[in-house]
Amino acid sequence: SPGNASASTQIEETLLKVKPVAKPSIIPTPMRIGFLGLGIMGQGMVMNLLRSGHEVTVWNRTALKCRDFVKSGAFKGNNPAEVVQSCDITFSCVADTTAVKDLVFGNYGVLQGISKGKCYVEMSTIDEETMQDVAEAITARGGVFLESPVVGSRVPALEGQLIILAAGERKLYDECYSCFEAIGKKSLYLGADIGAATRMKLIVNMVMGTVVAGLAEAMAMAEKVGLDQEDVAEVLSVGALSCPTVIHKSQAILSQRYDPHFPLQHQQKDLRLALLLGDKVEQPLYVASAANELYKKARRLGYGESDISAVYRAASN
Ligand code: NA7
Prior knowledge:
The chain is an alpha/beta fold and 317 residues long.
């Protein structure tokens, strides 16, 4: 469709524009790498794997998104099972729990490609129970599993500056060394216990979600009390609250440009998952709950696929 064609052109333009941070010392593993999911995060990660000399086979539900990566030297798999079969280590980074379940347990899914020694790394942010179910299914077939959500959004993914959180099989974590070097600025192994990396990711995104919701509410209030929002953004940018998130998100609110760096629906998913986790351990989460409602409202207003900063629309509505 024309929509898809323009998505592909957009990918190409973005990839040409962004320069990754130079990392001359990477020695790519000779292992064959598979990558499932070419969303905002997957696109940046795959580009950096290719740039650093890794052999990568890609698959995406919407196949057209593979085109620019094949032009840049990737192989294309026909389905997840085929990618897993033809590669040594397969990474996946897709939207949510439903997507992961489809990908892993579905027809021609990951599980059908797993045999003894095949390695699978799940980078999506999902609930830890599903993560554990996936781990069990993979290992029951002789596969090796690592849970590895990443912290960072579109630009850090494109620049190879993500933070990689990992838990599961230590040997596989070590084997991913050159891949993690290519896509990230830091990686952290949190132990063999599947779920630890997801919990860390949810904690970090709880901070992100509450900070951006608070900023949106303050900007909306500023306008109501007769302040110039540009002045507010300037004061914030020179004070102790000056950080990339506050600076970039206040600029997005000022310019009313909400092109997705971190899709709002994913932030709301992460808050929802954090609230479930809080429920399990009886931790009251007043602030995160309130923020979650604001993101929910923004989704209802149609901003699910916009950037997280579009939560301003819910706050000012
Ligand atoms: P995006 O840009 O929203 O991309 C989502 C990706 O997930 C994209 O490749 C989708 O394929 C894919 N997807 C969604 N549903 C499915 C199903 N049912 N089956 C297979 N593939 C699916 O997300 P991000 O890249 O920003 O984030 C990815 C994860 O990292 C997420 O968990 C974040 O919280 C962190 P499509 O192109 O639509 O066919």
